[in-house]
Amino acid sequence: MQKQRCQTCKIEKSLNEFSNNRKAENGRCKACKECEKIRSKARYKKEGEKMRAQMANLRKNNYEKRIEIERKSRAKNKEKNRPYKNARQSIRNRLVSDSKYVIIYKDLKRIYSEPCFNCGSLKNQSLDHRIPLSRGGEHKIGNMLTLCQPCNASKHSRTIMEWKLSKIKKGDD
Q1: Model's pTM, two decimal places?
Q2: Considering the domain 3-47 in this protein, what is its CATH number?
Q3: Fold identical between 3-47 and 102-170?
Q4: 125-166: per-residue pLDDT in tens?
């Protein structure tokens, strides 16, 4: 078993206690993981505010690039994330199926004939819950409304009031 001496604590340790470093001669960092952790915490304590500002600026200036990277990652890891997505959907389906309320075709037809609750569009309509199922809302007519796909996507899992207030704060409406 190969060993290496930590440059910081001067203790000889096995190589698996050192992080990988492609630039180093032996492919490992000169300081052990413990010492690097201590050094990193001290640096963050000293320069944390500056580091957070740099990261916020980086996120802001590279928004499109970051979104593209996230899309590629989602596409690449689709199979890996599928169980989580299916689990969320099964919980939602269980909430809807356990509902005591039956929504009849006539009510659905009436709801779909209404324009988007937010923008008034009659295209790409979808049903949405005023109080989302994930937040304790019920699957019944009184909790349903029509939204177009873009509006529904921007609402996420917020209530109608939360969504409207967030739009006012942003100045979208």
Answers
A1: 0.44
A2: 3.30.60
A3: no
A4: 888 888 888 888 888 888 888 999 888 888 888 888 888 888
